[in-house]
Amino acid sequence: MSPSSRLSGGREIQLAPDDLIITKTDPSGHISYANRTFMRIAGYAEHELLGKPHNLIRHPDMPRGVYRLLWQTLQAGQEFFGLVKNYTAQGDYYWVFANITPDYTAQRTLAGYYSVRRQPTRAGIAAVTPLYQQMCAIEAQAGKAAAPDASMQWLLAQLAAKQVSYQQFVLALEQAGAAT
Question: Where is the PAS domain (predicted)?
């Protein structure tokens, strides 16, 4: 099913506590490896994933500004932690707590990215949902070209007021939610 033919909404698929979704991509974000857990949850067969852009599963509720921040972080050679809402092939959705790390060759050239995603806390999802909704509203007003930077800057300003980075924010949400 193409992303354009999926209906927004759908039912939530919740990861089990022991589910680990693992993917690898090339430097441009095209999938070179997907584990069976990813295929089961996302609803794709391996041949439908390999060579495809990872944004195949991007949910429209996810602000483009989060992805702009993700790519800026990775291109700086740093790992990224984030809360992400994804689409399944059937039009359902699932949330993940994602850790994405640059993957280097022995010669220290970028080979791609390695991502491990697991079940997020419900408290984390509840905390980011209104932020992501506001970011999407900002993006709708800013226009396509300016949207990612406009919403990313708004998010970073909100977090700067709390004196935390996005990574610190989501890590604290996950730690606090796991403790409850």
Answer: 22-77
